[in-house]
Amino acid sequence: MPPETLGSRLRGNTYEVKRNTLTTYFDRTASKTWEQLTSDAPVSGIRATVRAGRNRMRDTLLSWLPEDMTGLRLLDAGCGTGALAVEAARRGAAVVAIDVAGSLVEIARERAPAGLAIDWRVGDMLDPALGRFDHVVAMDSLIHYRAFDIVAVVQALAERTEASLLFTFAPSTKPLEVMHAIGTLFPRSNRAPAIEPVRERLLRTLIASAMPGATLARSARISGGFYTSHALEVLPG
Question: Residue 83 and residue 38: Cα distance in Å, rounded?
């Protein structure tokens, strides 16, 4: 698929509308929910499985990054409440942690230990003003987007990435399709915008077509209870 087609999709209605929906959801509806979910506070059985799954996924992505990141620059693209950004900074990285939801960034800023090199920002992870990075991580920040939008975002981020880009997507599995249809991930009062299940083979094909010089390296799927997410490592060409 030609880059110009991907670019038009990236700035088209599907991407922009979904991003705005996510901003509204996290800032106006679910800030307290996600503050609790990403803490050690007691949560319901459903949310406990989501918390456990997210912790396992974060540990997996961190294991794909260097143990010593001194002198390296990392973008946490969709940082949420900041756990991954904090760990990367503890390894010595200079971290730019950005999210569309200002309420989550504020929680992250308040939780972060003092003395870490983290630049907390509210805005679009695709902002070219953020500069270039050695590593980029987008954990569960693309699970609400369709395949073509995911690939367009990955392509745009990879153009500013030197070593590796790690991202996750919602794999198209029977259990996830059922949960997606029923809509029981969270109670109705604060349910998240719909997750978009994506076929892994399709995503790999689209990335190979859009980014012929890139390499798809490590791959891992975390699945348990009400959490299912698949991680891919992209090495830019």
Answer: 8
User: Phi/psi at 157 (nearest 5 deg)?
Assistant: -70, -40
* Bridge partners, 80 (sequence order): none
Asked if the model's pLDDT at residue 43 lies above 60, the reply is yes
In sequence order, what are the beta bridge partners of 156? Answer: none
Distance CA 184, CA 186 (A): 5
Q: For domain 3-235, give the CATH superfamily.
A: Vaccinia Virus protein VP39 (3.40.50.150)
Give the confidence band of 191 by pLDDT, cuts at 50, 70, 90.
low
Q: Find tokens 């406990």 and name the residue.
A: 48
Q: How far apart are CA 236 and CA 233, in angstroms?
A: 10
Most confident of 2-6, 19-23, 40-44, 109-113: 109-113
Domain boundaries, the chain: 3-235
Return the bridge partners of 220, or none: 231
pTM: 0.87
pLDDT score at 2: 40
Task: Give all strands (DSSP E) within 111-190, no chain letters.
Answer: 118-122, 133-138, 161-169
The residues facing 146 across adjacent strands are none
Q: What angle do CA 119, 122, 127 make, to 5 degrees?
A: 85
Is 178 in a helix, a strand, or coil? helix
User: Tokens 């902002």 map to which residue?
Assistant: 127
